[in-house]
Amino acid sequence: MTDAIAFIGLGNMGGPMAANLVKAGYRVKGFDLAEAARNSAAANGIELSLSVKDVVVGTGTVITMLPAGKHVLSVWSDLVPTLHAGTLLIDCSTIDVETARKVHALATENGCLTLDGPVSGGTGGAAAGTLTFMVGGSKEAFARGVPILQKMGKRIVHCGGAGSGQAAKICNNMILGVTMAGVAEAFVLAEKLGLSHQALYDVASTSSGQCWSITTYCPVPGPVPSSPANNGYKPGFAASLMLKDLRLSQEAALASGASTPLGAEAAQLYGLFEQLGHGGEDFSAIINFFRGNVKAG
Ligand code: NAD
Question: Is 154 a catalytic residue?
């Protein structure tokens, strides 16, 4: 077994994550379809390969950080037959639970160990090495993966078997989408009632309405100086990424028969917000939608 790691998908998240593995002393081989991602990875000490099949040669661990389930299925289907038994595959992308379980099965049938390990913490957390990993897979795979994940994150949570990391991620982000919409609505109502932002914050942040969307990510400027509202709603966490996660939660709800009416409503709201051209803004900018002052962009 070798300590070298193959990293596929060196974009906004994967690039800095792979760079942290290099800083931790690992030999990291990398592959990405985009030239810009390849160039910045090379500058961070990642050894570039020309294909998915080349990048895994001589490695014992393969990490993928790709846009969506279809990319992960395609990449894993290509590379799994070329891997030696005992190789550990970790997919850190945010994808649908069904595809996550499919790729676990595909690789374990070939004698590999597998983890789904989606993250929260955004590009800032990826650069700082402070991501939270929500991990699904066997205890054996988890034990192998933890020392590597610890070089890229500060919290590693084993959520259960195959697909459990993705399940935890979309449930958490469904809560976040719903609470942000609720908090934004409440601030708009407060404005109409002549209540100051600070007064609502002082009450709700210490009362039963308290949640992360108020205390850390307050959607109005002022009460929480570090929230994106103070910076023209520059993301942070873009509305289009929130929409992606809400849609994944609704696919999972449909497939599993769960009733999630508030998640469905939040997905619709963020869908409209994106259609109006605001997908690139931070997701807390949804407050402008409730104020009725967003324009088609
Ligand atoms: P990104 O678009 O910046 O990076 C994805 C990279 O994958 C791109 O560089 C692209 O060229 C590459 N790629 C696509 N198909 C490929 C293939 N077949 N082979 C090799 N490379 C390929 O996206 P990102 O922001 O880094 O997000 C990656 C994943 O992390 C997504 O699933 C996203 O939902 C999730 N995520 C993102 C954030 C965030 O704040 N950006 C936060 C948490 C989770």
Answer: no
